[in-house]
Amino acid sequence: MGHYNRPRIDKEDFKLFQAIGKHGFVDMPYIYRFLYLDNKKNTILGRIRQLRKYKYLQTLDTFIPPEWSMDLQTGYRIVTLGTAGLRLMRNRGYDVLNNIHALKAAQPYRMYHQVQVATVCDALQEQYVKQNSKWEVYDILNERDAYIEGAGNQPDALIIFKSKVNEIYILVFLELERSYASERSVQRKLIGYENNILSKKFVNKLQLPVIRQRVLFVSQTEGQFHHILNKIENIDHDQKIEILVSTYQRVTNRGVEDMYIEPKTHRRCKLLQKELKA
Hints:
Blueprint: H1 11-23, E1 26-27, H2 28-34, H3 41-53, E2 57-63, E3 74-81, H4 83-91, H5 100-104, H6 108-131, E4 135-142, E5 157-163, E6 169-177, H7 183-198, H8 201-206, E7 210-219, H9 222-234, E8 242-247, H10 248-254, E9 260-262, E10 267-269
Parallel strand pairs: 6-7, 7-8
Antiparallel strand pairs: 1-3, 2-3, 4-5, 5-6, 9-10
Helix pairs in contact: 6-10, 7-9
């Protein structure tokens, strides 16, 4: 797996290409967690280098985001599809974006944000499978696929959960907060979601029997978690929409547990709990 002759693309490689096609970018922690599960890290790293050499992948070594390190050390690797990878995916009928120019433009915060969104979505999908829940992730729509013309707010991702018992669905709109958002920014998002949810914009687009829609704010740090909770509490918004707040670490490691907070009541609940309000 670690040789540097021209690679034969196997099922695990293709899973990686599909993940990048869906999310735009991944990083090495994402790859170690979700892909090549029967291989050691050094073997995986060698495979990534091999795929990069033959332009199936394009990588960027950039600084480690401040949430991981106080000093801006090079060593954080972002991965996207290279020219050969794009060609392979498009030949197989996949509509994938060319992110090579964005990678070369070296916008690490934007790419890190997309990688975190990818990790939250796929971690939830993984955890619901392992828990053998009555719910499963039916689909994950990235920012581009979830776009609706004229919608008041566009989510970072839309996670569609489906019941294994009945033909019913729950929509979870993901907002990954990477900074200390202003009250104006939070208010704009809440008003947008009020309009989208109450007018059933996404339900009408998906044409699915949706029983609930809720917004999940995920913060990178504990400080941001308390900040977003306070902002939501101070903003007058329609109580008909369901809002939950949690942290990146909790969602990606314990996403099926009752570790989500409903801002107005501070009640702990599960992501798909039937009722949020006490």
